[in-house]
Amino acid sequence: MQNFQAILDEIYIDAKNTIEKGSIASYIPELAHVDKTNFGIHLRTLNGSEYGVGNFETLFSIQSISKVLALSKAMSLIGEAVWKRVDVEPSGHPFNQLALLEIENGIPRNPLINSGAIVIADILLSHLKNPKEDFLNYVRDLAGDDSINYNKSVANSEKVTGFKNYAAANLLKSFNNLENTVDDVLDFYFHQCSIEMSCSQLSKAFLFLANKGGCMKNTAHLTESQAKRINAIMLTCGFYDEAGEFAFEVGLPGKSGVGGGIVALLPDHYIISTWSPGLNKKGNSLLGMQALEQFTTKTKLSIF
Ligand code: DON
């Protein structure tokens, strides 16, 4: 049995001693206020043991990490029909790039880049009765935690400055790949991205993907095969044009967000969540990636 707490403590000291911490995302003005020295890790094993270090209970903006939960909800609602509207190939481009979308006739490369996530938001808007309320309840249910909420100032802040997402949604609409209006879809999408969670809440919310589709309460939210597919998409697309690097360094399916969070998991074994708001040039948490590389190297617990 490994001493996970001692390993997390070592990684924490290393991160605290790293001078280069990356830069905070400022294109969503509300995110720019966050203190760069925050750093937390939380590990949950499938037998229910938990380990934490640093700011692992502090709430932060999960941003693109929410795309995985939106995708899983869409898959549970319409199954394979999702793939008529979005592909499953890595884009090799930044999360908000639009050129491929135009060349590929409005079919986004995958559901984890912005354009793909906007299509998923459209699916949820069409199939949920009270989309924002129902989606939040879904996330609360996955995590077994009713305190999880949207941050309306973050959602509004992105609404005012989200020009590229408006461009993506308009392009999708022009290719008939949105059923709802651009404004309604983006209002939902900005709220979805504004959800706040701590590392320990994220580890609980993502448990179902390490647990063959069954959540904290052991309710089956996805089939085993659907959970497998989402993990494959996280591995190949979860870090945009750095997905190869993440697989190479860390060797786990995972997802990052511009709030500085990362969730990664080893099916049947554990879920690990990190938060460090400073990002590298590709928009992924600099110290979060470093910490996860150290964790899988020290424990030898990766999928490879
Ligand atoms: O749409 C956006 O740009 C943000 N709401 C989310 C982007 C994001 O988190 C990219 N991830 N690293």
UniProtKB/TrEMBL annotation:
| Catalysed conversion reaction | L-glutamine + H2O = L-glutamate + NH4(+)
* Keywords in alphabetical order: Acetylation, Hydrolase
The protein's matches in SUPFAM superfamilies, at most eight in alphabetical order, are given as:
beta-lactamase/transpeptidase-like
Q: Where does the chain cross the membrane?
A: none
- Which InterPro entries does the UniProt record give? Beta-lactam/transpept-like, Glutaminase
EC numbers for this chain: 3.5.1.2
At the top level of its lineage, which domain of life is listed? Bacteria
Q: What class of enzyme is it?
A: hydrolase
Detail which positions bind substrate.
Answer: S64, N114, E158, N165, Y189, Y240, V258
Q: Which GO terms describe its molecular function?
A: glutaminase activity
Q: Which Pfam families match?
A: Glutaminase
Q: PANTHER family per the record?
A: GLUTAMINASE
Q: HAMAP family attached here?
A: Glutaminase (MF_00313)
The family note in this entry says: Belongs to the glutaminase family.
Describe its partners and assembly state: Homotetramer.
Name this polypeptide is given: Glutaminase
Q: Which organism is it from?
A: Mariniflexile jejuense
